[in-house]
Every structure is written in C-alpha cells, then in structure tokens.
Automatic annotation (TrEMBL):
Polar residues: bias regions: 129-147
The organism's taxonomic lineage, starting at the top: Bacteria, Pseudomonadati, Pseudomonadota, Gammaproteobacteria, Lysobacterales
Chain segments carrying region Disordered: 129-171
UniProt protein name: Tail collar domain
Recorded superkingdom: Bacteria
Native organism: Tahibacter soli
Amino acid sequence: MMKLLGGALTIFSVILGILGYFGFQQVMKSQLEKWAQDEFKVKIEASKALAESAAQNANKSLGEVNAILAGLRAKAVVPIGTIVPWFPPEVPKEGVSLNTIVPQGWAICDGSNGTPNLQDRFVLGTLDPNSIGKQGGSKTHNHTASFSAPRFEADNVGSRGTGASEHDRTKVSVNEAEAMPPYTMLVYIMKLP
C-alpha cells in the first residue's frame, strides 16, 4: 500500500509540477508581456521627446540660418548709402512718425542718422565728388523784367511857340505760379551700415 501510496504521491507531484510549470509559465508570460509593453511605451515616449527636441533645434537653427541669409542678402543686394524713394505699405495715423514703419536697416532722409535732408527736395545727379551732398535752389523766387515802351515824341510848330514831349511808360505784372509738373510724394530712405 505504501508502495501504491508512494506511486500516487509521485504522480500527484508530477501533476502538481506540470500544473505549476504551466501556471508559472502563464504568469511569466503575462509579466513579460507587461514589461515589453512598458518598455515599448518608454521607448516611444523617449523617441517622441527626442524627435520634438530635434524638431525644435532644427527650427531654431533654420530660423538662425534664415536670419543670417536675410542679413547677407540685404547687405549684398543693396549697397550701404543707397537712397531710394519709398512708398510705405501703410501710412501711419496722424501724429505717428514714419520712423516707426521704416524697414529695418534703413532711415528716412531727414538729416538725421547720417542721412541727407531730402524733405521737400528732388535729387539732382552729379559726377563731381565735391558736389555730393550740396544743396541748392529755393522754395520761392522772383521774376524781373525790363523793357522800354514805344516812345512818342511830338514837336509843335506854329505861332505859339515850339515844344517837345516824351513819354516812357513801363508796366510789368507777374503772378505767382507753381512751376511743377504733376507729382506723387514719396519718402526718401537710405540704407544704413
């Protein structure tokens, strides 16, 4: 009987062992799946954070590169000191200075910031280096005219005596007039260093 009982215990132990093995295997499988999912999530989050950081750095770098290129283009395309007539994209409200909307790197030619004062002036070209920057002309001027009117001379002959008469008459009338062709007013701006 003992032998039979020992054999049954052995079979029972084997069965328990087999069940235990499969149960342990199931628990381990479940745990391994959980660990794999957690590790996958961690890797996804890490990859996402890395990608976002790379994108931010790329955007920052791209912005810096674009700013540098814009600066180089502005300096290379338009020489310093270039003066151009400029039509602002929007006219500021009354009392607001045009200086608030002038493009960066430019200044209004009003006599400040090293610019010539071109307010109410037109530009006259020159090849004489000593004439650059000189100003001339005036806002008003006078017209003078001189001429002699026809003369009338008369001599009287007769019993009463003789006489002579001369008349000079000058009359000049000049009205003020604006002598400008049709125009459009713009702002002169100059490229700064």
